Amino acid sequence: MCGIVGYIGKRQAYPILIKGLKRLEYRGYDSAGVALINEGCDLNVYKAKGKVSDLEEYVGDKDISGVVGIAHTRWATHGEPCQVNAHPHYSSSGNLALIHNGIIENYATLKAKLQAKGYLFKSSTDTEVLVQLIEYIQTNKNLELLEAVKIALRSVIGAYAIAVLDKRMPGQIIAARKSSPLVVGVGEGEFFLASDASPIVEFTDKVVYLDDEEVAVLNPAEELKVVNLHNVGVNPEVKTIDLELSQLEKGGYPHFMLKEIFEQPDCLNDCMRGRVNVEANHVVLSAVIDHKERLLAARRFIIVACGTSWHAGLIGKHVIENFCRIPVEVEYASEFRYRNPVIDERDVVIAVSQSGETADTLAAVEMAKKKGAFIYGICNAVGSSIPRNTHTGSYIHVGPEIGVASTKAFTGQVTVLTMLALCLAKEKQTIDEAAYLQLVEELSRVPDKMKQVLEMNGRIAELSRIFTYAHNFLYLGRGYNYPVALEGALKLKEISYIHAEGYPAAEMKHGPIALIDAEMPVVVIATQNGMYEKILSNIQEIKARKGKVIAIVTEGDQVISKLADDVIELPGTLECLEPLITTIPLQMLAYHIAVCKGKDVDQPRNLAKSVTVE
Ligand code: G6P
CATH number of the domain at 456-605, out of 3.30.230.10, 3.90.79.10, 3.30.70.20, 3.40.50.10490? Predict the structure, then answer.
């Protein structure tokens, strides 16, 4: 979703802002813009529809001088993607320029009031309403920008992260947030501003995460000043971020997505480091040690998540119910939060989110917290909003995920949920010692088995070429592999725009079987496990209707290999760990099909990495 970058200091702002916008491209956007104050105190705004490179082209040889500036990538909500709707937005006088992430829900009411006072609007955005409102308050009450921003934000309903420039006060940027992330980078005599730390990391590792309803004044001549909307001063906590620049670059791979697929063995080792100890035969999660009683006393767990994280949650349900005998429900956060669910202090809510910023998941957390539930976060982005709003949690530690289609975060989430199940099962004594030991050992072997699967990349790339013609795909799996089928289908549609559906294999005959003909590729996860015979029958049903079967099987399978049109053989593992292995070829298949079709794999159309609006 929208991205914010800001700079104020001694250097020229424009190159820093453009580089920052490029680092944020992964979030998904459709237009970009920049505002700069030059030495003569002119406030120049340049905007373009399309990519950051289109903005650079548009800027050409215009005046880009200035040591203070703000920049934005917009993911359209109010009004189509076009130059007029792109941010920054000027106020009527041209004195102010503002960028904004989020949604001002009461913008129509505010706009009508301003129109009644004679204000004219150029764009269809909610953002322009905010900058006009700030200007109206500033001029009407003769206030400084900071005061006007606070008053304006007190009358706003909705979510925002904003940055504002006033050309009459070129030595400062005012920034504020509510329900939309904003990070201030603290340098020597300079400040940076961004929606996440990625544009900041090459300049400083010192950051301040703003909290809801906090307003920051970035003035390089002074210390960082933070106040809340009600004028109470806040002592900004400067944190050191642990992020390498190399983690934000492609490192020789053609796309971030492929890099991230290949990183998975290392990511899982990082995720398990200090947690899975094969020598000592145990798994530890500090959250379980610290909150053992609360977790074990739960009458049920409710996993809330969106997208790929929801699929990881489905696998978490299987594994926790299987080993811990605790009932688990898995909910789309967007449905859960508006459903008035039955929930109280006996429940544990597990929020699963890569970004830690997904608006619906965050709102579900807040709602469940109000109802007394204990909240456990499973997130990747350290210091993001969800981990800061939960009682406890476990990071997945897979490093920044840049590709919009989630890959390594999914396997990281599944790994943490599996470790959680193992820790709890051990405490609850619902798993016998031999099974526990076997699981711990096998879990530690998963990264090496993933490496074996990754060696098939060339073959899967070849195979993918055949399927670029397809208009539809079906993905089938059962048990632990049913969520993998859902995830495989999601990956394909996200990046190749081929319609794909995931289904529990046995449900196929209750509808999707009607679609099967010689044109329909069906990916079936048919590994050697308790469901093997059943899935074999499902494959027979597809072949009887001339469907094309791509079977994901366990090495050495003699039966399905003869039936299926194409076979991908994977190393065997315990059934409950299979998703960590079976997911990899489906990620590669989606990737290569999308590449063959010439699609923008890392930034698929209309999608956003971090969905900060509901
Ligand atoms: C977006 C992303 C998905 C992600 C989902 C949930 O739709 O494109 O990849 O799975 O949001 O995001 P979260 O950060 O909460 O895991």
Answer: 3.40.50.10490
